[in-house]
Specification:
Chains A, B: GO terms for molecular function: DNA-binding transcription factor activity, RNA polymerase II-specific; RNA polymerase II cis-regulatory region sequence-specific DNA binding. Chains A, B: It is found in: Nucleus. The structure is a homodimer. Chain A is α+β, with helices and mostly antiparallel strands. Helix content of chain A is about 15%, strand content about 20%. In chain A, the strands form three sheets. In chain A, strands 3, 5, 6, 8, 9 and 10 form a six-stranded mixed beta sheet that branches. At the A-B interface, strand 4 of A face strand 4 of B. The structure holds a DNA duplex.
Chain lengths: ~230, ~230
DNA sequence: GTTTTAACACCTAGGTGTTAAGCT
DNA sequence: AGCTTAACACCTAGGTGTTAAAAC
């Protein structure tokens, strides 16, 4: 186990999209046709579309870095998705986790994107869940609405692949037997990032400042610095 | 119908209590022993304790007023409760509504506090619900986490009694037949208030400024004003 | 006259990268 | 040297009563 681990808080809110931006099919990650386990109809037709894909691509091209701190830090860009094809009468559970990866493509499991049962729900990292905690686990008498997101522990200087899981809450008594077919995992490779305690690539810093509203206070400084180098 | 209606947004967060303040039995509203309909065991043992009761009492003594605006306004003090006696394995739905009342005690229905089936769930005002919307109604594909609270329409210059409802989500197919026994209503009379567009009682204004952190900016002004009158 | 609106200054609350100091 | 921490100034975001103008 690595020497240190840092909490990482994904930004709150998943599907806040104001019904804008069709974004085109390029942003969606379709299900694998060759999935070994036949999925339940409740999840088989579900598809997920990544929001802000253009911004994710821009970061990914430079090698996305995410600051991690002891107290927890939001991720930027935000991991937000639109969901399609869910049964409005069914109950679902939405999960997210982060799988450690290295940069050698050969070590990336084949068929990893989108769903491959063997490397799905249980992983080396803690899973984050939002949406009704009382569905995930029975509601305690108090704290019915904690924070929308929990904290994730990541190791600095390591690279991670976020994953998104849609789990159908099977009402059948023996639902454990159908665990494999009742969920679907979605992976967007452009959301991969390196966890750091301080930015390593100055161009990442500049892109963060340019695109994150909360970092607007540094826009003057970085443009001045760029000018000084240019001429 | 009255000429105007204003959205009213209850402050977010219901049971955020940090496990402090036992508050004593005086703050809780026990169930009526003479309830005509025998309640389901899932709700019969549920009890609710009002948070910040001392502050509510202080406001109530002066005649609580709540500002309502077109865009919606939080209430202060916040309506927060602690819940006890719920079955951790059961699903519940929590609702809140506001019943119009006038000041004549004779017109207040007997046995209104706590639960009286006749005047419970359906009321003249819209109901607010927080907690998982996908339990209240099936989750739409988008907007899975909207705001924690919805908007309430209240009429200015009218008096209201907030109510809190705990509803057991009965898994039985014919659950409609048990609607009366599957919920329990709690009423705290000290949370009654008058909806206004501008404060009528200056002592209410002073108490709001003194107790609401967001109004701290006016504390110097009001103390100066008080000094000017005193001598 | 009374009631309502909208702009405003002043707060709380919390998300940024920066920076200097600390750690290994 | 490199990595980590904590305090900091600077933002966004939004909850207050105030005030003067508008509406009725």
């Amino acid at each position: 186990p690595p020497p240190h681990a840092y909490p990482f808080a994904p930004a709150a809110g998943v599907a806040t999209s104001a019904a804008a931006e069709p974004e085109g099919p390029g942003a969606s990650c379709a299900a694998a046709a060759k999935a070994p386990v036949k999925k339940n109809a409740k999840v088989a037709g579900v598809s997920v579309q990544l929001e802000m894909k253009a911004l994710w691509d821009e970061f990914n091209q430079l090698g996305t870095e995410m600051i991690v701190t002891k107290a927890g830090r939001r991720m930027f860009p935000t991991f937000q998705v639109k969901l399609f094809g869910m049964d409005p009468m069914a109950d679902y559970m939405l999960l997210m986790d982060f799988v450690p990866v290295d940069d050698k493509p050969s070590s990336w499991p084949r068929g990893f994107c989108p769903t491959y049962p063997g490397n799905s729900l249980p992983t080396q990292t803690s899973a984050v869940s939002w949406l009704p905690p009382q569905i995930l686990s029975p509601a305690p008498p108090l704290e019915l609405i904690p924070h929308l997101v929990f904290q994730i522990i990541l190791n600095s200087m390591h690279r991670y692949q976020p994953r998104f899981h849609v789990v159908y809450v099977d009402p059948r008594k023996d639902s454990e037997k159908y665990a494999e077919e009742n969920f679907k995992t979605f992976v967007f490779e452009e959301t991969r990032f390196t966890a750091v305690t301080a930015y390593q690539n100055h161009r990442i810093t500049q892109l963060k400042i340019a695109s994150n509203p909360f970092a607007k206070g540094f826009r003057d400084l970085s443009s001045r610095e760029t000018e000084r180098r240019a001429p």
